[in-house]
Amino acid sequence: MLTGLFILPWWGYLLVALILTHLTIVSVTVFLHRAQAHRSVTLHPLPAHLMRFWLWLTTGMVTKEWVAIHRKHHAFCDIQQDPHSPQVRGIGKVLWQGVELYRGALDDEELLQRFGKGTPDDWIERRLYSRFPCIGIGLMLVIDLLCFGAIGLTIWAVQMIWIPFWAAGVINGLGHWMGYRNFETEDASRNLLPLGLLIGGEELHNNHHAAPLSARLSCRWFEFDIGWFYIRALVLLRLAKVRRGSLIQKQPLDPAAALNRLQLLRLYGRQVLLPTLKLESRQHGRAGRRLLKRARWLLLREKHRLTAAQRSRVDSSLSMSTRLATVYEFQRRLRDIWHLPERSGERLGSALREWCEDARTTGVAALEEFAERLMQVSHIQQARA
What we know:
This protein is an all-alpha fold. Helices cover 62% and strands 3% of the residues. The protein has 2 domains: 10-242, no CATH class; 255-384. Helix 2 (45-58) crosses helix 8 (133-148).
């Protein structure tokens, strides 16, 4: 049996495989995704090139191609032009054939020209990385065999399927199919897990789609983005600079969040709608409480995105409480403000102040308090303008 330079116990080989694949995940989320595709982080040439070299060895992916496909995904998310939407192509197709969809997207002749701008175009990229991606993969096989012997072939195989499965399959597929949502984005993005460890923080996919320019993907206190941890470590070492930190506000309500549609609606749901729902539940019997509980998260979603059965459940819940119906209606009105024709900052601020004036006369305590805070923030915005 072929032996390598390093002879390890079985768990040692497992640990090596996990470390190697984790390095690839980190390179994808920090270099490809946050630094290249969204420009939220500027990396020092040393870590940037090391990550680019590692991706050449372990994936054979071309930076410009990956960035272009990802940017197109954001531009046409969950509609027909999306390169890998499970809402359009089916969850099975994206989960198990994500690589084929990735390669198929490259058939678009205008893709790289339109969405691939600003990616590395130096000598080594043109002459080696982009021109001979398979050489890197072959070199990685040789390295694994030399280091670990025959078991190195298994480690190499795990490396080769890691990104196609977790990134092209799980993130692109399950990340738009199942999980929880902090923000009612226009697409179907979901957070798979609150702990972004295995896939570098990309598990927090709904957060990312709510604020694509944010270098940090975590939002709530219990969410952890390990990709952000590595970025902060690079910043401390002066090997990275965060251009756009967290665009997702954690504060109850501040001027930065006041004109951000998704953040404001999230705050409204948590500070007005859900407390009102909880209050109303106490006024009903067991059957009424059960109905309101089942409709809890449906009330936070846009009604046109619900199934017929879900809309019926929402309507039944609203019929039980005038106060809840009022809060729900003001949520709809708040959403509609961002769909005003010829919308400008001045008109948006004026519409928000009008909404606040109406909300402060409803007699619903939580709604009136929220409107009062929003009115104060609107005045701050107006003073700063």
